[in-house]
């Protein structure tokens, strides 16, 4: 996905579990809403699509496959703003437990059937009741109804501040119910999107070709006649494909960026995630020392974040001590500079906590995926304050599942910086995916409640307070927000965007 350590390979094992997004670009080119330019756009994709069935949809690097063939209920602009797509408007009830959507009445699926509210209901039910990687994002949905052809009512068991975000991501892609009932959506997508999969020009796991859908309801999103997505999982191969003209756009790594720039490619840099240590065992059930806040704070002071960013990411990114990202109401710029590298202070905190003699901790590593500079830097920094790291070498396929099952007391990881409620459900709440030990405390519970149920202003206040509290209590030890490095050739422009790992298909256009 977007990761520094052996970027492409490691990205594959992480992309399967994360809800990844991209953030603000330092290069503001590309434009949405152009039409009629024709030609073919070929994009190098870091992952191969596992299934075209939207019930199995995932965001991150998978999103472009689905955007080609499916419309979503809401669409995300390059700046992260949600705008109408299949849903022309939406409104909540007073306590935010019921969302009413108005659905377009002029849309048909590529099989000729009509897209209406009942079709939306079928898709939302399939998504939330299925076993897709993001199915749990609709866990608060208790009922979906379609009282008439253009109205969908989503009823929640409790308020979900991220619901609109989800409906603009994987949860919102809508397929033909007739095609879903017949089976085969995994290889033969039937949507209402701007493009249709050309199976005669498609070779699975090699080349996916999409042709412009005739009579599409929004021709401004059909900038090209043909879109080609080529899965290329090796970073060197991706670089070579871009430079040689096999693809027009590709995500590269800091270690290949200079070659692309030297070949005249256009660079876009933007953050999407934070990278650092997840400290799971905050109750000290496996490593008693980790229950002591001074020990966790010592770990944060012990890490030389600037050195790691320089060695692992070639300096592309921003060091940080907070897990909430820019552009969210939880973000506090002052927290980025807290816990500056100070091994002497870290040693003092260890002594104050009663661990002057140190302790040992086991963390996972994956051969070929973790950059040696990363593991060496972490090991040396923690060793300097008396913490011995025992690396457990595991298979890449076991990494994410091991984290969610709590197999290790702490681990390096990379996580998307989305909205506060997304982050809460990802790493903070007792039921969060990456809180396998289910740790919490009364202050965290109070602030989570404020984010979930308060007014918009109250939610922002609670989110910022939660960020400050988690940073002070050292629940996590973030290192930095690394920059993605995305490239296009000289004939192509795009606009990387907030809360998405790669640019949307809608953001590409021929260079002027």
Automatic annotation (TrEMBL):
Give the signal peptide, or none: 1-19
Q: What are the subcellular locations of this protein?
A: Cell envelope
GO MF, one term, reads: peptide transmembrane transporter activity
Q: What's the chief localization of this chain?
A: other
The record's listing under SUPFAM superfamilies reads: Periplasmic binding protein-like II
Q: Name one GO cellular component term.
A: cell envelope
Q: Which Gene3D superfamilies match?
A: Dipeptide-binding Protein, Domain 3, Periplasmic binding protein-like II
Q: Which UniProt keywords apply?
A: Signal, Transport
Provide the Solute-binding protein family domain boundaries: 81-420
Q: Which InterPro entries match?
A: Peptide/Ni-bd, SBP_5, SBP_5_dom
Enumerate the Gene Ontology biological process terms.
peptide transport
* Similarity comment: Belongs to the bacterial solute-binding protein 5 family.
**What is the protein name stated in its UniProt record?**
Solute-binding protein family 5 domain-containing protein
Natural source organism: Subtercola boreus
